[in-house]
Design a protein that fits this description.
By secondary structure, the protein is α/β, with parallel strands linked by helices. Helices cover 17% and strands 35% of the residues. The chain is globular and about 50 Å long.
Length: 130
Amino acid sequence: MGNPVVWFELYTPDVERAKEFYGLMFGWQFSPIDRDDNGYWLISTQEGSVSGGIVETDDPPGEQGVLLYVQVETLEGAIEGAKVLGAVVEQSPTPISEQAGSYAVLLDPTGCRVGLWSPEVVVTGNEGSV
């Protein structure tokens, strides 16, 4: 038996902006949890998949920690939608292999990194170059 992902947390200085981005981008839903600090929201990604929490923090987002990849239908479509919502492309669509599809990495509107993955193979125009 492997080690499946069972939870994730997104630390951000702007919870409302992050909720708006991830809600519109992926259809994720958020609900507050009754805790003393009131800075924690539950994230529901969809029934039967991994969910997590969103945590308000004053620490600036960084590159350390876990980078999650979210499956999308097409990278180009997802990237265009993400840019409209305030994301910035950190890693352009990059093919992995014909069997493994392609990926891209974004910075969400709060500066947190999020990966996108699609089973489609992206043609970059660099094939055959050295």
